[in-house]
Structure formats: structure tokens, C-alpha cells
């Protein structure tokens, strides 16, 4: 059966497509409108096995849903790893050809898009996080107004509805006072929307069986659990805990060179220590934030306090002890979720160590 390798360089208005055969020869090229019907009609016109790839981006989730039923294999690739696209000439047509070539030789790193049943929770988590960020941004702007006039805003009283009149009187400029009032009104609306988004997110999260399992783990509240489930989708994506650590940005990057030397006409490995270069930089920012915050609280929880104190007593720096604790929490989540068993300190902690 003939195989077609299709590279798609997707943009808002247009999509450049290159089709290669199994021998690496470009047999077709096209420039089409970025529209669901146009894209599916093009792919349906290809006979045999159709392998398609395009880079992760704003439209990736939408394209994944409309293309997946019509092709043999679909790879949404990570653009950070496509270094071949940076060399030589640069155009939509050239990029599409290079993507098809990388797909044919199996040099693309895929981006996980999960199952259809997880999309609702993903969108609700994004909505909640956007509203949290917008709320923080408005609060910072309110405090900036007072600091700009030499007034020191203390704590959260500056945001409370009962204290606003007292704070507004400290602003002498009428225009600046009006701006502060508008920001207060914006804050009230955002806080209401934030509460609604949180309720909807938690309601959807409770529909997933993993929620009951993960809520037994200390320092994982309902919001963090919803974020973890929406991002991970299924724990079976990760064969080991080290793969999970790398995904969430808790893997240590090491470098070594000249690993072997010639001794008596035989190659012998030099057992020198690899140099550490910090944590990996390509990671999921949401999950790293979740587990770092959870580790701060877990250091004082009954389940993890003794483990954390042993690390500090052994001479490990506090920040490295917290990193180790975050990795312990991540491994615990993976172990409990995979095994589908309840969390117990005696059973899970040794497995997650």
C-alpha cells in the first residue's frame, strides 16, 4: 500500500501542504485556505496510508480533531525540536517540505493532545487560570496607583469593598480617582467570573475517577487536582517517574564528554562524574507551578514532614530539599493514579522514593 507523508505549515488564513512518497520525492504541493472542509477534502483525495504532521500552535487542537478521523497517523510536533526548519531558506512552502521529510524519517517529537473526553476540563481550567491572572493584574494596577502617589497600600484591605472609600479619599487627582474606581469595578466583575469558572471547573473535575484518588494525597486540593488531570490526561503516557519529572521540569540535566579512552588497545569507560546543568528547560509550566506550590505546603504536613526534615538534616540545601519533595509528590501522584489504589503513607512513600 502506498504511503503519503504530508507536511502542513498552518497559518491563520492559509495552509501550505507538501506531500511526499515513501522514497522522499515530493509528489504534490498545494496552498489552501485554513478551513475545516478544505483541509479534509484535500486529505480525502490521497489514496493509501496518509501520515500527517503540523506544528503545535494556536489552532493545533482544532486541527487535531478534524484531521484525526481521516488519516492513518497524525503527529502534532513540537516546534522547539524542529531545528532543520531553521537552516537554509525560509518560506511556507519550504517549511511544509521539511515537515514532510522529518515525518518520513521519524525525527519529529510529538505533542500529546489527549482524548476527546478531556477537552471540556482543559478549557475550563484555562478559563479559570486566565481569570486568576487577570484578577492579579488588576490588583497590581490598583496598588500601583496608590504607590504612585506616595500612599503605601497595606495587605488586602485596599481591595475590600468596605474600605474602598477610605482609600479613594487618599487620591487627590480626580482623573486618577476615576481610574481607580473603574479598576475596582473591573475587579468585582473578574472575581465574580472567577468564582463561576472555579465552580464549573471543579464540577467537571469530579466527573473523572482520578479526582477521588488524587484528593487523598496531602497538599493536593481540588484546584490542583483539576489542573493535573486536565494536563496529564492519562498517567500511562509516562512509563517511569523520571519521564514524568522531565515533563514537569524537575529533571536534572547532566553533561559529560570524552567518556571513553584507549587502554591496552581496548576501549575503557572513564567513570568520571557528570556535570549538572540545572533542571530541564523544556517543560509544562502549569504542572511545575502546581508541584512547587504543593511541595512548600507538604514540608509541614504530617505525611511528608519527617521525610523533608531528614533531607535537611543530611546537609541538603533547603531549595534542593524542596525540589526533592516536589519530585516525591509527582512520583506519588503517578504511582497512585497508575495503580488505581488508595493513598497510604506506608504503601506509597517507599514506591515513590
Structure write-up:
By secondary structure, this protein is α/β, with parallel strands linked by helices. It has three domains: 3-104, ATPase, nucleotide binding domain (Nucleotidyltransferase, domain 5); 118-205; 210-352, no CATH class. 49% of the residues lie in helices and 15% in strands. It contains 13 helices and nine strands. The protein has helices at 36-44, 60-67, 92-104, 119-148, 164-168, 174-205, 210-214, 222-232, 241-247, 285-298, 305-313, 318-339, 345-352; strands at 3-10, 14-20, 26-33, 49-55, 73-77, 252-255, 260-263, 266-269, 275-279. The strands form three sheets. The chain has a five-stranded mixed β-sheet with strand order 3-2-1-4-5. The chain is globular and about 75 Å long. It starts with a strand and ends with a helix.
Amino acid at each position: 500500500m502506498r504511503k503519503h507523508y504530508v507536511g502542513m505549515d498552518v497559518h491563520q488564513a492559509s495552509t501550505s501542504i507538501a506531500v511526499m512518497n515513501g522514497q522522499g520525492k515530493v509528489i504534490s504541493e498545494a496552498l489552501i485556505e485554513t478551513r475545516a472542509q478544505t483541509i479534509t477534502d484535500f486529505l480525502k483525495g490521497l489514496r493509501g496510508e496518509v501520515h500527517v504532521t503540523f506544528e503545535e500552535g494556536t489552532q493545533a487542537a482544532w486541527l487535531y480533531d478534524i484531521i484525526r478521523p481521516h488519516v492513518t497517523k497524525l503527529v502534532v510536533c513540537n516546534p522547539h525540536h524542529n531545528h532543520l526548519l531553521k537552516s537554509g531558506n525560509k518560506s511556507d512552502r519550504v517549511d511544509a517540505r521539511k515537515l514532510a521529510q522529518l515525518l518520513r524519517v521519524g525525527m519529529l517529537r510529538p505533542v500529546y493532545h489527549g482524548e476527546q473526553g478531556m477537552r471540556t476540563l482543559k478549557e475550563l481550567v484555562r478559563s479559570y487560570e486566565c481569570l486568576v491572572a487577570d484578577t492579579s493584574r488588576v490588583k497590581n494596577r490598583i496598588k500601583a496607583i496608590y504607590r504612585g502617589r506616595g500612599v503605601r497600600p497595606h495587605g488586602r484591605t485596599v481591595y475590600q469593598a468596605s474600605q474602598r472609600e477610605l482609600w479613594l479619599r487618599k487620591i487627590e487627582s480626580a482623573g486618577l480617582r476615576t481610574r481607580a474606581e473603574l479598576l475596582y469595578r473591573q475587579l468585582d466583575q473578574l472575581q465574580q467570573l472567577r468564582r463561576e469558572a472555579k465552580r464549573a471547573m471543579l464540577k467537571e473535575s469530579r466527573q473523572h475517577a482520578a479526582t477521588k484518588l488524587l484528593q487523598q494525597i496531602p497538599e493536593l486540593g481540588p484546584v490542583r487536582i483539576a489542573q493535573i488531570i486536565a494536563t496529564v490526561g492519562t498517567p500511562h503516557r509516562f512509563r517511569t517517574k523520571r519521564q514524568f519529572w522531565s515533563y514537569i521540569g524537575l529533571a536534572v540535566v547532566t553533561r559529560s564528554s570524552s567518556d571513553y579512552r584507549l587502554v591496552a588497545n581496548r576501549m575503557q569507560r572513564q567513570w568520571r562524574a557528570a556535570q549538572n546543568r540545572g533542571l530541564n528547560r523544556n517543560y509544562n509550566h502549569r504542572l511545575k507551578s502546581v508541584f512547587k506550590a504543593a511541595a512548600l505546603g507538604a514540608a509541614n504536613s504530617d505525611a511528608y514532614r519527617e521525610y523533608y526534615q531528614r533531607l535537611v538534616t543530611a546537609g541538603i540545601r533547603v531549595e534542593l530539599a524542596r525540589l526533592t519533595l516536589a519530585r516525591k509528590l509527582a512520583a506519588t501522584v503517578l504511582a497512585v493514579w497508575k495503580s488505581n489504589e488508595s493513598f497510604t503513607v506506608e504503601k506509597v512513600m517507599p514506591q515513590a522514593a
